[in-house]
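Q: Convert this sequence to structure tokens.
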Amino acid sequence: MSIYEQGLAPRAANHAPLSPVSFVERSGEVFGDVTAVVHGARRYTWAQTRERSARLAAALRALGVGPGVTVSAMLSNTPEMIEAHYAVPALGAVLNTLNTRLDAPLLAWQMNHCEAWVLLTDTEFSPVIAKALHLLQQEHGRVPVVVDVADSQYGGAGERVGTHEYEALLAAHEPLPRLEGPADEWDAISVSYTSGTTGDPKGVVTHHRGAYLNAACNALTWTMPHFPKYLWTLPMFHCNGWCFPWTVAMLGGTHVCLRRVEAKAILDAMREHGVDHYCAAPIVHNLIVNAPAEWRQGIRQKVRGMVAGAAPPAAMIEGMAQIGFDITHVYGLTETYGPAAVAVKRPDWSGQTLSEQTRLNGRQGVRYVLQEGMTVLDAETLHEVPSDGQTMGEIMFRGNIVMKGYLKNPEATDKAFAGGWFHSGDLGVMEPDRYVKIRDRSKDVIISGGENISSLEVEDALYRHPAVLACAVVAKPDPKWGETPLAYVELKPGSAVDAPELIAHCKSLLAGYKVPREIRFEEIPKTSTGKIQKFALRERARSVSAIE
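A:
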């Protein structure tokens, strides 16, 4: 035994498992008088938020929630959703945030799969939840304890479907004396479900250590100061809001809640509350870029946005720069707690043209400082590809900011972690400065006449046309070429352009074989986080081809 191991075992005074719950206790203690939450007319300080969370934890404990027990939440971006992120982990329980746009069968499937014991649900969603609860009981024999949340900002009262009401439940319990994390930082903190576009969705299980480190990484990546004013444009049900419920707690910041993600509501909140940080998928940033200029009047503070959720079109990044918003591009997956890589802006980039800055900032970048590995590997050999900006491989991660695995799915877990790396499924290249650039999802690459076409590259060209609001390019089966690019396009209000003009526009920017053979002006299906559902468009394209 080394001399450095003799009598030097870890003990309570010098070793504690990492958990983001500690951030809430600290801010409640040292920033107790600082505003923590703003929601309509409601205001809570950090002392009050910590107390409300501790009351919720006490109430959940009384309902039988403890270590390893799942609490599901069907909630909008409201104070109750924030409190759930603090209270549930403090009991060693596991938080399952439900996508508020899911249908009843999928909600029932997920709550059964993760064995939800308690459900916190906003009365706005009572109709679909009532159906889901019926299915849950009839098909799976599971009857969770249901707690209704009647949000003050919801116009309709909504029907109650539960046996408890949130505020009454909090009032009936004394707060726990302390919000404490688990004894083991490897314990699960949440389970979040992937979209399930092929087969059943997978339950991504994350742990306290990863959530703690990624919350800290968010602040480091963004050089966030103490007391940021953070606007909730990103749904908290999505990857636990990319860990920002805990980042804001760490910095004693202010959560500015937003129930409806609309351009005017976003800009009004920025003006009224001095918002300086927000996160969103590209489509939400596009809403801001394309909003009337008068809606942005009076916003004098520097606003910093974080973009992820899909590869952002260069036109969006350039547009945000033109209106004075500072955008940081991050990249990650549900399996990496949301963002785990960032296009770090280097000082010498500021001397480049706006077009070149846009290109540089549009890359997925380098690993978060507390993520141990991110690279591009040949999927077969697991050898790193050359950093030539041309050789494609699969983007892979490893380190503390990677999930525990998939719930009740060891085969999928083993496949995802094969060779000691987490396989993202995203195809990319490593550029000479070792910044990673996504070329496409492996399933989204279009192979036409033996040539690989990046759907993202074609979309980027389309977005550069001033009339295009949203677009998506997928493969359409073709008897001669195998596949050809098919573009779905939504136009900006008041704009007009026809397919030949857009095709000519693409020809000016792309090699001929990459240009869409067909453009369809149709509404593009999107998830609740603004990500375009390409699987639906691929099915639509196949159906069109079969008919023809």
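The CA atoms of residues 352 and 358 lie 9 Å apart.
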